[in-house]
Amino acid sequence: FDRQAGALCLEHFRAKEECFSSFKVEKQWRQCVAQDPAFLAEYDRLAREAACPHLRAKIGGAAPITFHYQFPPTLRLQPGPSQQFRRAHRDAEYGHQVGEINFWMPLTDYSRTGTTLWVESSPGADDFRPMEVEYGSIVVFHGTLCRHSVPPNASACTRVSVDFRVGVGPHFDAAWSLDGIGHAHGRRQCTL
Fold this sequence. Notes:
Layout: H1 18-21, H2 23-34, H3 37-59, E1 66-70, E2 74-78, E3 86-89, E4 100-106, H4 110-113, E5 118-119, E6 129-130, E7 139-141, E8 148-150, E9 159-168, E10 187-191
Antiparallel strand pairs: 1-9, 1-10, 2-9, 3-8, 4-7, 4-9, 5-6, 5-8
C-alpha cells in the first residue's frame, strides 16, 4: 500500500521466488494471463495501435507489411530480496528469429526495485546498460541478436514487467521453428 497515493503498489506484491526461478511455475501463472480477457484486450490494443505502427513508421514506404505479434505477451515477476538472476542471452538461443523485435515494458518503479533489464547496444558489443525507464514506458531492442540479462533483485520489492516480440513482414517466417525447442509463442497478425 502506498500511503501517499492511497493505492496498492505492484512493487509490494509478494510473489514466491519460484515465479522467477522455476519454468514450470512460470508456465502455471502465465496461464492466468492467457485466460484474462480484459488484460488481453488491452494488450491487443497496445500491439495493434502502438507497437506495430511504431515499427511501420520506422520502416517507411507505402507497401503494406504484415506484422506477427506475440499473443499473449510474457508477464515476468522477479521477487526480492533474492539472488536469482537471468544470465546474458540472445533470444535466438530460444528459437526466436532475426526478423523479430523485442518490446519490454516495466510495470514497476525502477527507483523502488533497483533492478531492471540490461541490454547491450549492438550484437557482441558487451557494453550492457540498464534500461532505466519509467514504468509504463516501452523499450524496443533487437533481443534476438543483442544479449540482455537481469541481475538479482536485492530490494524488498517485486519487479514486474511485460515483454513481447513482433515479427516483421518478409523478415519473419511464421512456419519456422528451431529444432529442439518445444515451446513457441502464439501469434496474431496486423497488416499496416
